[in-house]
Structure formats: structure tokens, C-alpha cells
Automatic annotation (TrEMBL):
Gene3D superfamilies (UniProt xref): Ypt/Rab-GAP domain of gyp1p, domain 1 (1.10.10.750), Ypt/Rab-GAP domain of gyp1p, domain 2 (1.10.8.680), Ypt/Rab-GAP domain of gyp1p, domain 3 (1.10.472.80)
TM segment ranges: none
Subcellular location(s) per record: Cytoplasm, Cytosol; Cytoplasmic vesicle; Lysosome membrane
Pfam families reported for this sequence: RabGAP-TBC (PF00566)
Entries under SUPFAM superfamilies matching the protein: Ypt/Rab-GAP domain of gyp1p
Source organism, top-level taxon: Eukaryota
Record-linked PANTHER family: TBC1 DOMAIN FAMILY MEMBER 7 (PTHR13530:SF3)
Known function: Non-catalytic component of the TSC-TBC complex, a multiprotein complex that acts as a negative regulator of the canonical mTORC1 complex, an evolutionarily conserved central nutrient sensor that stimulates anabolic reactions and macromolecule biosynthesis to promote cellular biomass generation and growth. The TSC-TBC complex acts as a GTPase-activating protein (GAP) for the small GTPase RHEB, a direct activator of the protein kinase activity of mTORC1.
Keyword Membrane: yes
Main subcellular location: cytoplasm
Keywords assigned: Cytoplasm, Cytoplasmic vesicle, GTPase activation, Lysosome, Membrane
Organism: Pipistrellus nathusii
The name this protein goes by in its record: TBC1 domain family member 7
Amino acid sequence: MTEDSQRNFRSVYYEKVGFRGVEEKKSLEILLKDDRLDIEKLCTFSQRFPLPSMYRALVWKVLLGILPPHHESHAQVMMYRKGQYSDVLHALKVVRFVNDATPQVEVYLRMYQLESGKLPRSPSFPLKPEDEVFLAIAKAMEEMVEDSVDCYWITRGFVNQLNNKYRDSLPQLPKAFEQYLNLEDSRLLSHLKMCSAVSRLPYDLWFKRCFAGCLPESSLQRVWDKVVSGSCKILVFVAVEILLTFKLKVMALNNSEKITKFLENIPQDSSDAIVSKAIDLWHKHCGTPVHSA
């Protein structure tokens, strides 16, 4: 038996006896032992498999450029990151934009605004749409990442990736959603069109916020593994799978307002299955892209 066939046999066996992911975890640990982490291989792994929770923050920090590929630099770089975090936080307290009672996600927002030169003149100024997006992502990230310094830097890196790497791709996702939904269930798409719902679907929640506030964090982090490692198109297939999962409910609703309201507040107990099926659907239509949007 060849090495590959042995590995495949073990993977199938582990999955059958309830140890799905054992082989994948071992593969990731081997990758993380390299003196210089291979970014491309980490991206490929994250695209193919869910990251084990114990390694997720580390891999995300490396892929988002918060940590360099070289292991020996990690401790020193994180020391600098912590120092920068403390300096920015102190500056915000001096100008009285935050205090000890300020919610943590709002602190992250003000830090991000200050660092990007977008801090408003007064904390009482109304939030902009992009601020609301940042808060939603930060709130979800807070449930995934325990350490506040890590949480800020990962949120910052994630939002910067959306604003820079995916800037041109994100506006195209609603059109791609319509295309793939038509391939999977043209009758369902026809119903949405008949109800004039296609243009009123919660695209901001799905694509700008990357489902933050829509899916529970335990499911969401599996989607964000793909976003962080190179594909925002996974978001399209999560949206498609939500429609397919709740087809009967959506088909029973006959106006766009009711459909949108339901889709903004989908039942949470189906989320793990939705994400698993969405990832399968994504692989079916797109293969395993590494650095594509």
C-alpha cells in the first residue's frame, strides 16, 4: 500500500470512528514546525480543512500579516504589537474618547479609527456604515479570540483584508449569488424575483459583515478560515445554502420584506449543517482555490 493510500485509508477510518480531522491536525502541526512557515501551504490547508481551534489564532495572525513567517520573530513582534496596542489605547484615554466603562468592541473601533486617521472630532458623532461593519466583525471575533490584543489585531487585519484585497470582489458577490442559486435551484430564484426580493436580500449582512451577527461564532469561524486564507467567494455559497436549507419557508413567504426579515434572523440550530454544505458546494463549483477571491 502506498503512503498516500495509507493516509487516505487512515482518514476514512478515523472519520468512521469519530476522530475526523486527526490526520489533518497532524498535517497542520508539521507545517507549523517549519522554521519559516510556508504561507501558501497554510492557505491551502485552511482552504481544504477547518482549522483546529487551538491553532486558529496563530494561523490567522500569520496569514493576515500580523506575525511574520519566521518563528523566532514571533515573540518579539507580538511584544511590539502589545506595545502599540497600549500606546493607542492610552492616547484614546487622554483625549477622552474611551474610558474603563467603554465596551471593548467600541475600544477596538476607536483604536482602528485613530490608527487609520479616521477618528471623528467627537465620540458623539454618529457611526458610519463601515464603523457598524467593524463593530459587527469585532463582536463576533471577541467570541472566537480570548486575548484582547490578539482580538484587536486580528479584527484589524480581517477588516483591512476586506477593504483592500477584496475591495473589488465584494461588490460582485450579489451577482455571483444569483448565478449559483440559479444553477442549484432556478425555481427558488424565480420565486425571489417574482416577490421583487432579489435586490432586497441582506447582502450587507452576508457579504460586508461576512455573516457576523447572522451565524453563531462556532459556525462562522469555519467560514472565516476560508476568507482569511484567500477566498471571499465562500460567502456566496453560504448565502446560497441558507436559501436552499430554508427553501420551504422562503417559498411560503410572498413579499420581499418578510423574506428579508426571515433571512436576517435564521434559526441558529441549522448553522453547522449550512456551513458544511456550503463548503461542499464551494468545492463543487470552484475546486480548491488558494489565493483567488
